[in-house]
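Troubleshooting entry. Yesterday's outputs looked truncated, so today I'm pasting the complete records for two proteins to confirm everything comes through intact. If either block looks cut off, that's the bug. Protein one:
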Amino acid sequence: MKSLIFSFFLLLGSATVLAQNITLKGEVSDGKAPLSEATVSIEGQEQSTQTNSKGVFELSLPQGNYILRIHANGYQLQKVRVDLQAPTSLPAVVLQRENVSTEEQVGTTISIADEELDDEEGSPEMISGFLQSSQDLYFRRSSFDFSPVFYRPRGYQSSTATVLVNGVNMNKVETGRPQWSNWGGLNDATRSQVIVTGVGASENDFGGVFGSNSITIAPSELRNGLRISGTTTNRNYFGRAMVTYNSGITPSNWGYMVSASYRGGNGKTWLIPSIEGMVYQSYGVSAAVEYKASPYFSTNLMGIYSYNNRGKSAPLTQETISLGGRNYNPNWGMQGDYVRNSKMKRIAEPLFVLSNTYHKGDTKITAHLGYQFGQVGDTRIQYVKSQNPDPSYYTNMPTYYYNMYDASTGEGDPFAWDKAARQIDYFKANKQLNWDKLYQINANTGGESMFSLNEDIIDTKTLTANVIGTTKIASNITFNGGVSYQHIGTENFQQINDLLGGQYFLNKSYYSGENYDTTENLRLGEGDKYQYHYKATVQRANVFGQLRFKYGKADFYVAGRVNRTNYEREGLFANNSVYVDSKGKSGVKYFNTFSSKAGLTYSITGRHILQFNTGYFEEAQPLNNVFVNIRNSNSIIPFRLKPETQITADGSYIIRMPYIKARLTGYVTKFENATEKSYFFTQSRLGDESAGFLTQTMADIEKLHFGGELGAEVQITASWKATGVVSINQYTYTNNPILFQSSDKRLVGDPLVAYLKDYHAGQAPEQVYSLGLEYQSPHYWWIGVTANLFNNNYIGIAPSLRTENIYLDPNTGSRYTNVDENAVRGLLRQEKLPTLFLMNASAGKSWRIKGHFLNAFISVNNLLNTQYKTNGFEQARKGDYQAMLKDRKSGYPTFGNKYFIGYGTTYYLNLTLSL
């Protein structure tokens, strides 16, 4: 047997030695003229060459599959996959200047990481960060021009795509979504990305229903040289500075990369007003060291740390917008000479990854070992025995008084309207948070703080180990696969950060009056934990495999994944009598899932392509959605939770002609067994307001998303290009899910049916239309304009309003009589925001100075300074028929829908020097 194995490898080696090399030729240009001295290298090998004065290169290689890395100073790196079976001349490879699209991506990154909204009361969630490096026109436009309205292609959440950094899965266990700010501001270091949008073949990960994004930080993957950039903007921060140096792989086989950035803003406006009070401080650093021990083995050690501490804005009612203005933000106020925001988002989670790669010919195997630790925190003002200090709180608004009197019946306070008029002036004079007042109140209570600034903290430690490989098992068959394991430990608690001039804070519930934890810890100081304290242990393991086949004009793939996810909660506080199981371990809850996908690409000709994909995905429920109230209880949702399933199919017709590039796609996706978590106040069924803070889980959700998308580019002349994008979709609920509600008065109520069938899923426009025109000068400057129309943008609905509770008197529990069903339908009609038109412009210029490049890029969004709402959600505080009728009778509801407000005209200016 040993001699047989030896003979096999001897014959294999002999065949390799005797195999004749095959000639590969190609040409590199910038679209107008050949590029000389462009470097062409083989990924994973030492061999490389440069183009001659005519932009031509030639390589001699054995038969096989290769990835060419083509780059030139001042141009973006481009990778070209080659299946070399016979002497081949490649089509011309066109490199794009860095100031054309790369800087555009840098500019738009502001709206990716920094504007993620995670307010407890509702949040339009962005997926644009996933798309920022996509080369597809539709997805590129979705990331850049559509992101101000929180547009989500196909209505997908960002949890439907996996994001990897050097092989480490960055999707958070609590929500399933990636935390983009973990690498925010380090655009140069994270520039090497492989994106699969939608269901498709993926080498690095099985991916989700919306694909995967694999980011690689390594000297061999990034552009060599020194890069210095400076930015000014009037959005969330005022300025940014970034410096990056990458050595590439040097003759000594070592390489290193280091990148650092700073972003800052004091929350005040400059030049053109933006959202007020957006205090911003962020700095980041990333470094990588790589060593090639041989032509086939390399080791890379990478670290990345991005600290971000930024103020948040708030959703507003129409009344608040009208009185406060389009840039109003109630979360901040002046403390001395400084802007102080009460709701700050703090992110500090460094990541380190050690990667070892073997790459020879068609075989590549990479092992990753990663460790991430750190905290994510959200501050808020905690108050007891006092009114909510938020200046936009409903009792501070004029409609609170206006609706105390019914003119048609004469019932109520006859002076209410006079009080409402006076309240208008009062609000305008006191519309910002009064920090001095909070300190004064705390100073007059004998040491007890009525107000404190607390922070909800998630302290996470994640260990990741995986192996990913690819090899060619036949001339036309390639295998990709991998195995991965993650151990995640989180510690979750609320911490008292600032007593605001007081000496202690009482360790009691504002709603129930009972103690948190034990009576021994009645008085809490700064740094003490309050309200909840628990740990969660999560283990995730998966194995995936993929086979890709090539037969003539047809390429197809099949792939599968098996995954196991374990959850366990351990409570460290013994909370009030309702949460009898708050302390101790919950036991393990696990999900076993299986997913599969397949696709076919058929080239009618080299310029006309058909593509079809289908997939069945099972995903473990997010950690927070498994428990009734994870902060205070070990109890699991009393429902047979299954993995969420996503069944999808899409078909595309792709045109790739010299002057026309287009893609037309139709798709359908069915979501089943989904869950959603929300937190809100209500006065329905619970009687008094103090018992009305609910944690709500909606289970057994079914939704249907379907539609079509078209993206087309037409090269009118050598300098002029026109682009167009159309996307028409529909996202609706297709069943009536089950609601579970938990409060300080009752751990979990009886299940309620939420009648949501045929309502729109909401919180993203369903229709978009976009036209663009770009001029590219032969003198290396360009300018572009886009016009964008958004329609069918429905706000998020409140499921609790669509249960039988709407018909019940909260004081008696009996059903209302004489209910007008037409009135009920009117109360529950889902609001659709007005059709919106936005124009954006961008321009760039590149200078070559003694072999170096200076690039300038500027973008101006919302040229017409249009005032608009990006999205919104219904309030559920008044949740019964009579209360809703009374609140809305005047036409000026106290608890109207809340909205997120879009930016006015904003600019982004960037200068980059590449040495």
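Protein two, checking that the full record survives here as well:
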Amino acid sequence: MKPYLVKLIICMAIIANSTYAQIPVLNVNNKNSAEVYLQSLDIQVEVTGNVALTKFTMTFKNRTSKVLEGELLFPLPNGVTASHYALDINGKMREAVPVEKAKATQVFEEIVHRRVDPGLLERVEGNNFRTRIYPIPAHGTRTISIGYEEELPIEGNSLCYNLPMDYKEAIENFSLKATVLQGSVKPQTDKANELVFDKAGTNYTAAFSRKNYKPERSVTFSLPIQKEIPMVSMQSASGSYYFVASCFPEKKVRTKQWSNHIGIIWDASLSGLKRDTKKDLEVIQQIVTETKDLTVSLYLLNNKFTKSGTYKITNGNWDDLKKALESVIYDGGTNYSAVRTATLPDKEFLLFSDGLSTLSNADFFPKDQKVMWPRVRQNDSNKSIHCIVSAAVADYSALKLIAAQTNGKFINLNSLSATQLKEELTTETLHFLGVEKTDNIKEVYPSVATPVRNNFSIAGITDVPQTQLVLLFGYGNKVEKRVLVSLNANQANREGNIHRIWAQKKINELDMAYEQNKEELTELGKQFGIVTRNTSLIVLETIEDYIQYDIVPPFELQDEYYRRMKERSAQQVQTRTSLLNNAIAEANVLQEWWNRDIKKQKSKYPVPDSENEHRQQEVPEILDVVEYQEEMREISSDELADMAFADVAFEEEIIPMAMTKMVSEPSQPQIRITPLKQDSEYMKSLKGKADEDYAVYLRLREEYINTPTFYFDMADWFYKLNDKEKALRILTSIAELEVENASLFRLLGYRLKEYNEYELEIYICNKVIQWRPMEPQSYRDYALALYDSGRQQEALDTLYSVLTQSYATNIESKSCGIEEVVVTELNRILNKNTKLKSSGIEKQLIAPMPVDIRVVINWNMDNTDIDLHVTDPNNETCFYGYRETKIGGRISRDITRGYGPEQFMLKKAIKGKYEVFVNYFGDSQVKASGPSTIMLEIFTKYSDKEEKREVVCVQLSKEQKATQNGLLKVAEFEF
């Protein structure tokens, strides 16, 4: 057999056993839809030295007569990040530019609502990249391009390129071209491969195109090398040089001695369904085969951390353990903070997970025990945690950090062949330990201890064109091998984006300690055009958009951009402003209202009996629909007041709500949450017996697995059955449904507040801040969660920051009205906690304003208009069109484009029944969304020692949303 064929077979065998397809998935209306399909795919591969640039250009066709928005999820391998993004604008591809992630999100969403063409590529949880595309025209197409650089691994004596493909549907137009620049040896492919390389000048190229083609086989080729000689690529940059060096250090075989008492931490959260558990079990099989006799403790991790059992394995028989693992039920969110390995008896641990801790930071170690990266010990227990990942979507950085902090192994089953896996599990791992200090070399990455499996590569910056670098390798902390690398800019490969490979390596290292390195990660992403957690790539349609938002456009637009930037007036610049001045004005209005003496007024002249009868009519108890049109927004308040409740209709379609809660003391006002019947089809199968109903839930979940409403309703069912454990497990599954979905997390946070799970609510609200830092509602929700958990000072400071932070003018505009609500809540905290530090708070805002009744709502969907209505015992209704009642009731401003909040307050309540309604008025969302979730808080004796609160979450039905009218009665209470 020819030598190159041996090398290629080795490469192909490894690829066949180690890869998963990186198939982009397009979602429309939050789900994979046949409405839009991949019409054409062009793939361009360019290899320079040991670095490959891969670009996907995808054209999507809209089959419908509707304009749609799509979200494309693009998973990338461990250590690889997107560095190219382009979108078709007026028939021509336009390159994206890097922007801070929060700003990019805000700009994208604002422009989308003007119905023009922005594009956005952002990194979401794990190593996943999401691009948002709008519009996809009716019966039309949109084209996007995404690219990334990666270093090629060495297998045998060859560099191996592999692009996994497993497309399920045929593509109308498919093409692929691969180019090896300055190639000295012809790339090798197997006979079944459709790529055939030919010489083209100093390069080698291969290309093919097909019609109605279904790409099912990986694209692979190999480049023979001399691995004894380090490969070096260099790129000049402002008098310095970026370099990437790759070598193949010789390894000694050292047998790994596994402990005879191992703990298995098995991620049993909902996302566990996406892991390749067959591969996970193969890992355990390998260890058992080598160790034969051991004791295994099995721990299950989802929203809780529980011990499932202890298994004594003798002579390699682990049938009972295997059966237990194969029967695990995957449900709930993932809470890494619940794991405390130091208190467990096991000597070392195997963690099988995707690294996506949806309910806590991805860290097993409490703050008082945490050690700084890169030192590897959590404490003196010397318990290694080996992190094993088999999921295609994973947070590699989180798992690498846990392994590094505990001197454990990080094992990515998606990148290891069976042979490599066996070697990894049965031998000690060689580590790169650093470099010998050299004066003219700096910024070398990795700079920390790094496992070495085959080849190892390092990147850095040198101030001279020619120097030497010594790499240190060993086992544990002992240096046992030195590798000399010669850097010579005249001899090294000088093509390719070496600077981006360097930046990518630095980003990967800094990302492991993300919280400490946020600012530097942002700077790196912006300078090198790389998508990070803090930076995105954005495409705008017009030069005016780049000017308005102060974003430097791609090269072809920069001359006009800079010329016009000099000419623009101050009015053209998008400004930022705080809410403080508005809050002071609202505080004055509130104080004037609160100080007003409201007396019961009697009509001067007799009132006709027919009018009295009309006023005394009760609003129907379940669901009321007020028949008014959108034009009524423009009618005067007096006219609206006369028309309110003039026509009443009934609607049967309703959605289940939270459990009724009653105030215990008879002397206090009684708040009754209106019980709504369970009309969802899946609820009809439940019988009221928790264990049996849980089995029904699991069976039904197969059909509704990606439907948030299903978990929302099911959780409440079990909560009503007083099975809070199952309720929380089901509820927290919502966090696993979609990466970085703030609307889902807001929904989850509302329900957690209702269930008094305040610590978990704090984490959920804090994640929303990370994703939506541009919105005041994010900080308000977080502040109120802090207060509920007893952290009053932190809550006060955070709530005040809602008013003092600066916001873009469009955000400030659609949040107008939140100031009054925040002022009310600030004064409540101060009134009930007199020892808090408040010297930094504007004095004009402070005025105790206790009231007998306060009702407040907010909702989870942006660009949505939901209204609060409160009817008093006199049958007088306070709502946006009739903001003050005769007995002193007052409602805040109508928020029509945000998340709320809206509040009703009554200083002195009269005796009688009060009824609370909500009305879905409409939305301006570009893409269809699930039902809006409303959180309603009802207070009696607000800001008083006798204060009582009830919380209820309500989901509006699709039918009610579609009609854009109707009142839903959610509560009533006697005062």
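Both blocks look complete. Sanity check on protein two: Residues 3-18 form the longest helix (16 residues).
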